[in-house]
Specification:
Length: 247
C-alpha cells in the first residue's frame, strides 16, 4: 500500500495554478461528458422512483458514478484553497477556479460550473477574506445557480445552449422527476395499467439530457498534468476537516 504522505507529496508536484485555465476547463468537460453519456435514461427513472428509499443499486451505477465525481471534484476545489498555507497562494487558487468556472460556462459545461460555484460558496472557503471583485463575480454565478422558480435562470442558459454541445446539471433532472412522481400516481386507476401523462412528463423532464447526450464536443483534449493533479481525488478533505483547517 502506498504511503499517503508520498501520494500527497506527488499531488503537490503539479499545482492547479501551473496549468492553463482553458486546459483545465477542457479537461473537466471531457471528464463530465464521459460521465453524462454513460447515464441511461432508465437509471434516472429508477432513481426517482426509489428516491424515498434511497437505494442505489447496480442499475444506477452510472448515475452514482457521475454524482460521486461531481461531489469529489467540488470538495477537491475546497481542499485546494483551504490547504494552501499562505493567503497569496489561496488567492491564486481562488482566482484560478473563478477563471475555470467562467470558461466552463462558455463551454456550456454547467455541471463543472455548478461544482465550482458550490465549492466557492462553501462555509470553509467563505471563512477567508477575498477581494471585492471576486465576491462580485461569484455573486453573479451564484445567481445563475439559484434554485428559485425551479432553477429558472439555469434553465434559460440550457435553452440558449441546446444547439451546441452542453453538459447539464443532473440534479435539476432528479429534482423535477421527484416532483412528477409525487404529483402523478403510477397508475391512473385500477383499470388502467399505465399513467401515460406521468410518463409524458418524465420524458419532457429528461429531454434536455437526451439532447445533451447527442451533442459532441470536437477538438477538446484532456490535460494529463491536470488529471495527475486531481490524483483521483485521493486527498480531499471532508467538511469537518476543511472547517478545522480554515479556522
Amino acid at each position: 500500500m502506498e504511503n499517503s504522505a508520498i501520494k500527497f507529496s506527488q499531488f503537490r508536484l503539479t499545482k492547479i495554478t501551473d496549468i492553463k485555465s482553458n486546459s483545465i476547463a477542457e479537461t473537466l468537460t471531457c471528464i463530465e461528458k464521459n460521465y453524462i453519456d454513460n447515464i441511461d435514461i432508465y437509471e434516472m427513472m429508477s432513481y426517482s422512483s426509489s428516491f424515498k428509499k434511497r437505494k442505489i443499486s447496480n442499475k444506477l451505477s452510472n448515475l452514482q458514478a457521475y454524482t460521486t465525481n461531481f461531489n469529489k471534484f467540488s470538495y477537491w476545489c475546497r481542499t485546494q484553497i483551504v490547504t494552501a498555507t499562505r493567503q497569496k497562494d489561496r488567492d491564486k487558487i481562488y482566482n484560478k477556479l473563478v477563471k475555470v468556472m467562467k470558461i466552463c460556462k462558455s463551454l456550456n459545461n454547467f455541471s463543472s460550473m455548478f461544482a465550482i460555484i458550490y465549492a466557492l460558496n462553501s462555509v470553509s472557503v467563505t471563512s477567508f477574506d477575498w477581494p471585492k471583485n471576486s465576491h462580485e463575480t461569484l455573486r453573479t454565478f451564484t445567481n445563475l445557480a439559484s434554485t428559485s422558480e425551479s432553477f429558472k435562470i439555469y434553465r434559460k442558459l440550457v435553452c440558449e445552449a441546446k444547439e451546441a454541445p452542453f453538459i447539464p446539471f443532473i440534479a435539476v433532472f432528479l429534482h423535477e422527476l421527484e416532483f412528477i412522481n409525487q404529483s402523478e400516481k403510477r397508475f391512473c386507476n385500477p383499470s388502467i395499467d399505465v399513467n401515460f401523462l406521468r410518463h409524458w412528463k418524465q420524458y419532457n423532464a429528461l429531454s434536455d439530457l437526451i439532447i445533451a447526450q447527442k451533442r459532441h464536443y470536437v477538438n477538446l483534449k484532456p490535460n494529463p498534468r491536470f488529471i495527475g493533479c486531481l490524483n483521483n481525488y485521493a486527498n480531499i478533505l471532508n467538511d469537518s476537516e476543511l472547517w478545522e483547517m480554515a479556522n
